[in-house]
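Q: Structure tokens for this one, please.
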Amino acid sequence: MSTVQGVGRPTLAAVAREAGVSAPTVSKVINGREDVAAGTRARVLAALEQTGYQSPLQRKTAEGRTPTVEVVFDSLNSAYAVEVLNGVMEHAAVEDVQVMLNVTGRQSASKLTPERRAQRILDEGRVGLIVVTSAFGEAQLDAFYRRHIPVVVIDPLNPPPGDVVSVGASNWAGGKSATAHLLELGHRRIAYLGGPAEAECSQARLHGYMAALMASGVAVNDEYIIPGVFRPEHGVRGLRKLLALDERPTAIFAASDSIALGVLAEARRQRIRIPDDLSLAGFDGTFQAEEAVPALTSVAQPLQEMGRAALRFVLRQARGELLDSRRVELATHLVVRESTAPPR
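A: Here is the predicted structure, written as tokens:
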């Protein structure tokens, strides 16, 4: 067998060329998969030894260092972010992996070019990234991919490139279940306070809302659909707009618990009783929904499990494992509490 020539660390592709097999076959051998013929396995093992290939995690272990994964947020000022991070940290303790937290903010994220930011990750020795942010667009994710940096995006605002792994929730089904619940209570004038109009998750929740209305024979009223941001101030402004309409809604489906909390705050200022005067449902199922007064009916996302799953997928990529899917969608479920009731 010939020696692989070249500079830098040997790649999975180099091992595959040396063994005369495909890169996925090499990945299967590295990860102990049984569906590889004995002769092929022997060739791959010999090529691994010949090239000196090590996965990022193997290199960290060989160097006596604990692997580090970077987790990137725009901000940590929401219960959503905190619960996702709790899931990441919980699984990191199981895997004996360090977590480096990076809160970028939209302003600071733009100071580095995609190429420089990707190179920084390599220079600082991260084995991969979990991105819970809207600051990284396709150009940045592509720069990570070209440098073979494992990346997982949680609940992306926009569809990531096809080669990037994403973890999310069943947003369409969640939007449909929240709206169906309000319809079953007897509401027909139901408003939707959404996140950014371009956000994939907000669009999916909106489409679920519309599907539930149409299935019940209720016309979609464009005046009741108000996009915005996943922040309490959108709930405040959105409720004010809805109250200014000639025909006010009797119920609101908010696309996040943060938006719903803004609605609750403004409703108190306006002396609107929830749920007596107005029913309200949120989305996320955070601890804030349970602690709100009244306790908030909400579509619960498995936020901690999303964090755990994201770390698992980063580490699987870092070990050179071949993934069966690039998109993971976890189930949501509606939790009915005190903020919804039949219309008066």
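A few notes: The CA atoms of residues 203 and 342 lie 27 Å apart. Confidence is low (pLDDT under 50) at residues 1-7.
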